[in-house]
Known about the structure:
The chain is of the alpha+beta class. The protein has four helices and three strands. A hairpin with a 2-residue loop joins strand 1 and strand 2 (103-111). The longest helix has 46 residues, at 24-69.
Amino acid sequence: xxxxxxxxxxxxxxxxxxxxxxxxxxxxxxxxxxxxxxxxxxxxxxxxxxxxxxxxxxxxxxxxxxxxxxxxxxxxxxxxxxxxxxxxxxxxxxxxxxxxxxxxxxxxxxxxxxxxxxxxxxxxxxxxxxxxxxxxxxx
Length: 139
C-alpha cells in the first residue's frame, strides 16, 4: 500500500511538472536578452556618434564666426580653438582651417571610435566622421 502511494505521488508530481508552464516566459526572455542588449548598445553608440558630430559642427561654426568677426586672427588660431574645444570629446581629431577669398573654411575629421562607448560593431568603429563649415569673413 505504501509503495502504491509513493508511485502515485511521483506520477502526480511529474505530471504537474510537465504541464506547468509558469517558467516558459522566463526562458524566452533569457534567450532574447543578449539580442536586446546588443540592440540597445548599438542604439547608444549611434546616438553618441550623431551627438558628437553635432557638437563638432557647433564648435566649427563658433570658430569660423569668431574669425569672421575678428575675435580670432588667423586660420591657425581657428585650428587651436577647435582642438581645445574638441579635445575632451575626441583627442584624435584632425583639424584644417583656411582663409581663401574672404571665406574661412574649417574641416574636422574624427574617428567614430572616439565618440562611441561600447564599440560593439567593429564596422561602425572603423569609420571617420567629417564635419565642415564655411563662413564669410566680415572684417
